[in-house]
Amino acid sequence: MGNTRFPKDSLVVVATGAGAKMFRNTDKTGDVSLKSEGELEPKDLALEGPSGSYVPESSQQETDEATFSKQLAHHLYNRAHDGDYDHLVFVADPDTLGEVRPVLHQEVKDKIILELDKTLTNSPIDQIEKSLRAA
Length: 135
Known about the structure:
By secondary structure, the protein is of the alpha/beta class. The protein contains four helices and five strands.
């Protein structure tokens, strides 16, 4: 196991620019045992703008991914502000990490215990747990 300890009830988010899966750590010993809490999918992408500065040469997919990153950051802030989690593990591909980081509220940043740049959204839970243990 890596050096990271995973407190019970930590929120684990596994994301790409096209969606995010939410998990809760149920292990009481500092190890990882994930339970699915559902998914967050992009909504109303045409009505919202992307996060950060907009580059006119961006493809529609890049714009949609940037917009979803903003939606994900907002979702994580609302959950943190409501006291839904004290510790956050954030796993995403490098592009999504780069999109989300600048728009995360400080309240969310303060709860991050591990940030992992991997694409694991299509991985089974046991593979996600294995990747987290190795981090």
